[in-house]
Give the backbone structure.
Amino acid sequence: MNRARVFLTGVGGQGTLTATTLLARTALDAGLPVTSGEIHGMAQRGGVVESTILIGGYRSPVIAPGEADVLLGFELLETLRALPMLRRGGVVVGNSEQVQPVGVCLGRECYPPLDQVLETAKGFAGRVVLVPCISLAERAGTAKAANTVLIGAAAAAGALPFDVAALARSVEKYLKPQLVALNVKALELGAEAARAAQTGQAA
């Protein structure tokens, strides 16, 4: 696989756009043409952030509903909301832990249970891999690395046209030196969790 339309969704403060940039640079370093764009971004923490990355020669950064090959969900409720963007049989890789969006915090919306999100996702996707990104990021050194955990999980799940080692090279090349070790660890923890999750599904 050297083509993929990836839709990323999360909330402000999660590093969704940072992850998008890292994925794009990794693809470019692998010699793959990339188009990416920010669909909707809220500067304040907690606002919805969505972005796209299309790898393999797509001319437009737009992903229409039902077109995404991969949905990367940095926040559980936003993953649920974005499921219509996924093509039938696509792959969902998401954070299984809550980062409550503004609507939930204000009492306008109710947060769905994990089992409900998982079952709904299975109705859209060929594969669903959910990992506890925040907890794993804290193990790596900081909860802020949850975005790196998720993309490590996505690479290990085979959802991206490059592997975890390629992402690690990008972390070493593009992030500040003081952030490299913990982000490489976050990638590894995400990858391990994704492999374990898929083994469990296959059992």
Remarks:
- The chain has eight helices and six strands.
